[in-house]
């Protein structure tokens, strides 16, 4: 049997703060398989970012077990198992787009010729061919976010962790980037963990939708999407899509009520 890429067993995390303990994650059980596109959706404070940061080895669970390809998150982080895309593109303004994409490759000491090849390849993947020499301020918000995805893809990690990457963009740009991300996912076979507040975005993108609720942060529903892998934007008008969106909305409502 295939081993999960991300395997969470009863993961718990309590932050100790000056105002007392904050139970950010409680009993989180989840298996993410290779090539899954998993979205995490839930109200503010339900622990979505915390869980992503646990996967990334940036927070340490206070209970349970979490492995990434059989490794501890810290080992996985050291082996560069994932690329991380944040809500704000987070590009260095004094570096060109190519320079920004190059940064992790420099840190990892890739040979110079390979760096150039990789930069060109990921620029093409995110449809920013010819923009490598521009500075971030010369690009629109959507293009900057594509550049930040290119940076996360540059070292070809199998896992992509994305924390509300399109949250700050207008609907039309977001639709376009959603479509592009799906195409990129299909081409690269990456495993993607994606945090969002948007029900349509979660339903459109995911093979698995994880609904969470706060206080303490926990998973209340895991929905395996019956939608086909090929998803034109119009799929959002189909009864299957609407039914899925309804189930997610109901799950969120129950979480709120609790
Ligand atoms: N470093 C920290 N120290 C103390 N408490 C924290 C820390 N990081 C997160 N928290 C708390 O843990 C809970 C979960 O936060 P988290 O950011 O993971 O939620 P979220 O679901 O990603 O929220 P949002 O949708 O607003 O981004 C919140 O109550 C938050 O205040």
TrEMBL record:
It comes from the Bacteria. GO terms for molecular function: ATP binding. PROSITE patterns: ABC_TRANSPORTER_1 (PS00211), ABC_TRANSPORTER_2 (PS50893). SMART domains: AAA. InterPro entries: AAA+_ATPase, ABC_transporter-like_ATP-bd, ABC_transporter-like_CS, ABC_transporter_ATP-bind, P-loop_NTPase. CDD domains: ABC_NrtD_SsuB_transporters (cd03293). Pfam families: ABC_tran (PF00005). Signal peptide: none annotated. Keywords: ATP-binding, Nucleotide-binding, Transport. Residues 8-235 form the ABC transporter domain. Belongs to the ABC transporter superfamily. This is ABC transporter ATP-binding protein. It comes from Celeribacter arenosi.
